[in-house]
């Protein structure tokens, strides 16, 4: 690493990640579907943490709910299927299974294509990127599966003490829950970072899954503090962006509210339908564009971080701000 201040290094990486994200907007569509398996390391911690296993209910159900997006909603659909006949249920199960397989394939393909698009020296057509991604699908899928399984194991391990305490005393312990959170969040954060670095290494070097995971662990072990600092900065930036998006949506809701109120006062069904349809489509487009852009930004940021840590000239120099502070003193 250069002797630049670590904050300047982070700023340079994030500025370049933003430039790639903004200039290559066609990658956003890959980012939308890639979010089904991984958002890029940082927001996975927030989403998994919010759905963290709580005391009560079925442990297996909560493990699935905390590991796979949409599990709860899928369970509701399956419960409602009991009112149909066996033939209809079989058709629906086959249909839903095919949809899930298709979405999973599309998500892994998009994740692989996204990294390929970021890696490319120039902005390439999405079809070219997609065709190039086929060679890595199985290895990326393996990493994603291992990440989900490891996440479920972490949830189970960090939940067992609370379940044991609740079974013994039937009361809630704040201290155990606090310790549980202290262990769980860093573990999920590290797992998410290792996952995205492994995916990047597979695509960057054509390595095996084992080699990619080993390299990702070596990167984290060597630059663990810088990695956590970088993840924290990313998390703060994305959180601020989410609040800005919320503010924009609320601000743009004012004209919609005026038109909506006018449709109710005039009793115009046409205005009512048009207003709701246009605002719904607009809000959906904004959310999807924002989601695709944010995921693309995260993958770009981690790809540039990976390239920085794998720099052959200075692979082991500390880039963490705290370490540089102690080095200067």
UniProtKB/TrEMBL annotation:
The chain crosses the membrane at residues 27-46, 84-109, 145-166, 178-203, 230-252, 257-275, 281-306. Keywords: Membrane, Transmembrane, Transmembrane helix. The keyword Metal-binding does not apply. The keyword Transmembrane applies. It comes from the Bacteria. This is Glycerophosphoryl diester phosphodiesterase membrane domain-containing protein.
